[in-house]
Amino acid sequence: MNEAAVGFQCPECVAAAAARTRDVRTVLGARVDARTGLVSYTLVAIIIGVAVLGFLLNAIGGPDLRTSLGVVGIAIDVTDSGPTLIGVADGEYYRLLTAQFVHGGLLHLLFNCYVLFVIGPFVESAIGRLRFLALFLISGITGAVASYLFNDPQTLSVGASGAIFGLFGAALVINHRLGRRTNEILGLLVLNLVLGFVIPNIDWRAHLGGLIAGSLVAAVLAFSAPRLRQAGFIVVCLVILTVDTLLVASRTTQLRDQSFPDGWRAAGAVAESVEVVPRA
User: Fold this and answer.
1) Is-catalytic flag, 108?
2) Which of these, 93, 96, 155, 237, has the minimum number of CB atoms within 10 Å of its CB?
């Protein structure tokens, strides 16, 4: 028997009652959990950890993580061992994911971590941990794809800004679905979008790409019928990733045709050195 506040309870009866108890869920279908923001805080810790690692590597003369992990179409990176061809068009597709975890400077790092720390737990608690992680990564990847498509191929783009704007869009959609005020989030979103156009070296293309992806995923979760919500979420994620893949393939073909004339690689020719400039 299990000791209770009053008397004792049969273990089989307790288990049967627990099996009949329905999980408490949010309007968007997420299971209510006391550990709110676990994924958000973990992402913040990872981003800060990568920044510290990058600082330590720079201090000892090691590789620059921004150049190694950021999004760049195609460029020549000159190191102690000589010129090296780098970029997504050279097959380094991992950059579309890893660029989210490196930043161009302290202010860039602090802003993204602050927004993730404040808005992340709200979105995460509304849609659930795994869905939140998927939304964050898909928004960041789509932002990176937008950078790859529309930036100069020799421009380096870094940062989680695409994912952060995806969270802005998701928070806006969720607040609208719940009937809450959206003025504050909308004003902050518009302000940051405008700043991206007026301040140099801010990659507004990544911002727009992440915003579109995050808003689409959140809209499906917010407005689908409960029985179709999970299927709709999976479908919209697959559609976005498929479109991203097709766009990357098209851009890669274009850049390879432009950058690799006949015999370029076979002859081992080295193009003029290009300075890779980080963009936030």
Assistant:
1) no
2) 93
Q: Is-catalytic flag, 161?
A: yes
- Which domains does the chain possess? 38-260 (1.20.1540.10)
pLDDT digits (tens, 9 = 90+) for 215-266: 999 999 999 888 898 999 999 999 999 999 999 999 999 988 776 544 444 3
∠ Cα 210 212 213 (to 5°):
65
Residue 26 has pLDDT above 80, yes or no: no
Distance CA 144, CA 138 (A): 10
**Type of residue found at 165:** F
Tokens read off for 62: 């090691």
Predicted TM-score (pTM) of this structure = 0.83
Question: Is the pLDDT reported for residue 129 higher than 50?
Answer: yes
List 157, 207, 224, 259, catalytic entry? 207
Instruction: Provide CB contacts within 8 A for 60, sequence distance 6+.
Output: none
Query: Which parts of the chain are beta strand (E)?
Result: 2-3, 8-9, 75-79, 82-86, 156-157, 278-279
